[in-house]
Amino acid sequence: MNFISLSYFVELAKNLNFTKTAQKLSTSQQNLSIHIKKLEDYYGIDLFHRKPQLKLTQAGIVLYDSSIKILMESNNVSSRINDIKQNNIGTLNIGVTPYRGSYWLPMLLPEFFIKWPNVTINITTETSARMEQMVISGDLDFFVGIKKGSDSLLEAIPLMNDRLYLAVTRKLLVEYFGRDADNVILECKNGTTLDKFKNFPFILLKSNYRLHEIVNVCFQEAGFKPRKILEVDSIELMLSLFDYDLGVFFLTEIRVPTLQERYPDNVFLPVLLRDGYVFSPLNIIYHKKSFLSKYAHDFISRTTALFGASQSISQ
Fold it and tell me: Which CATH homologous superfamily contains domain 162-280?
């Protein structure tokens, strides 16, 4: 048994497909099969059911859980030794959500690479729920997103409470509120419930975004179904449509300052529920037992500083 065989086994256990796993590992299916056979011979038991489809046996499940811990500890040892050698060469595996990643990463990465030119960063874009599992399995060092589960192995560093906003063009406000548009803006500048906008057309994100869940709760409390003219799966596409007066859309506070500069005549209003403003708590999530290198700690420090500055600007 060796670490290569274990790592091959873990990847196959995740994908349950020899072809895809071999491609991901940049090896042949034959070589992958040899490593799996070595493990099965070593333990004297089948680790996979081959038919009718590939799946883990009970022994395979036990080995998978243990292999995750073994490989994580092996990576921890390598990282610690690398830190002692201080050659500052390594790889950082981080996760970001599609909604926020494109906003903050470009502001952070250039200066990070100036300090750490020999570090490679692998960026995964996924939902927070999926990235939690990737941190637990050791596929990610950490991610920036929303803590969904209650796993005791995960630690969270708070970044900000990202407040929900309604974005609407002045032309749409005048179209639906007429001469009262300016009064409505003044009345709602510190917060608005959605019932005032029930006749407006809406551009909404698809259900793979957490923002979709939050907005649905707001509509339910407001007591109406939105007049949905577009549903998109890209925040960037939604933002690009802003100046065409097609409909109202939702975003969070982290995006507001940049858009206010770009569209000074358009309006951004905090959304209110009965209990007050609507927030998404944004965190850095990492594994309690995973060793983080000096450059990982530096990346985390830069991220917390960046979000602290963003909050100061928005306030």
Answer: Periplasmic binding protein-like II (3.40.190.10)
